[in-house]
Design brief:
By secondary structure, the chain is α/β, with parallel strands linked by helices. Helices cover 36% and strands 18% of the residues.
């Protein structure tokens, strides 16, 4: 098991990214966390460094600050609702691959954990637009010189209580999570499980590079300390 690793987190001002950050700051396997955001994440911690950078399509001005890291937990993403395919492609595939390409070039042996989604289309040929785009993003990440790429495909994520970036949807309909978890447990996992699974993937390793909900839960359960 690798310990004392240094990780980069994107999307820390969103629900998933904040949840992953929250666990990383407490986990003994993580020595340092760098968050790269467009606006401050609002956290202060001895492990935490933060870079505020507006343009994720041009990271060259901060490239020298992104070196020396062991893993990236890429939690930045947008909903496809209301977007045409070209716009969604730019915000999902183009942006992700731009960030990932730079990180893979400046960090030898870096591992990359990408938050994708349940029912992502690896064939890139299906009828669902977002699933095709996510599938191409996953596939193209594997072409970069990372030591390992893990694609996380959660379905419904149960938020961590007390965090500030929980989506409004969960605040109004969170009471539905318990019956959904009872009726369809393979479609729901906790945000804490996603974070622990990411940490364990890059410290312990995992046999699969596409992790569905059951894989996320299994990998998270391997954690000895959190």
């Amino acid at each position: 098991m690798h310990t004392g690793i240094k990780v980069i987190i994107t999307g820390a001002t969103g629900m998933v990214g904040e949840g992953v950050l929250h666990v990383c700051l407490q986990h003994t396997a993580i020595a340092e966390v760098l968050v790269v955001n467009r606006k401050p994440c609002g956290y202060q911690h001895a492990k935490l460094k933060e870079i505020i950078h507006a343009d994720f399509y041009n990271l060259q001005p901060i490239a020298n600050q992104l070196t020396g890291y062991d893993a990236c937990f890429f939690c930045l993403g947008v909903s496809s609702v209301g977007l045409k395919e070209a716009a969604y492609f730019k915000l999902t595939h183009t942006l992700t691959l731009h960030v990932a390409t730079l990180l893979s070039n400046v960090n030898k042996n870096m591992q990359f954990c990408y938050v994708s989604g349940a029912h992502t289309d690896s064939s890139e040929k299906g009828n669902i637009m977002w699933a095709r785009v996510k599938g191409k993003t996953e596939n193209d990440l594997h072409q970069l010189p990372f030591s390992k790429v893990y694609n996380f495909r959660p379905a419904i994520i149960k938020p961590t209580p007390g965090l500030k970036n929980t989506l409004q949807l969960y605040k109004y309909f969170g009471w539905l999570l318990a019956p959904v978890q009872w009726a369809a447990p393979r479609y729901i996992c906790t945000l804490n499980e996603v974070a622990l699974a990411m940490i364990n993937a890059v410290t312990i390793g995992y046999s699969k590079d596409i992790l569905e909900v059951s894989n996320i839960q299994q990998l998270a359960a391997l954690s000895i300390t959190n």
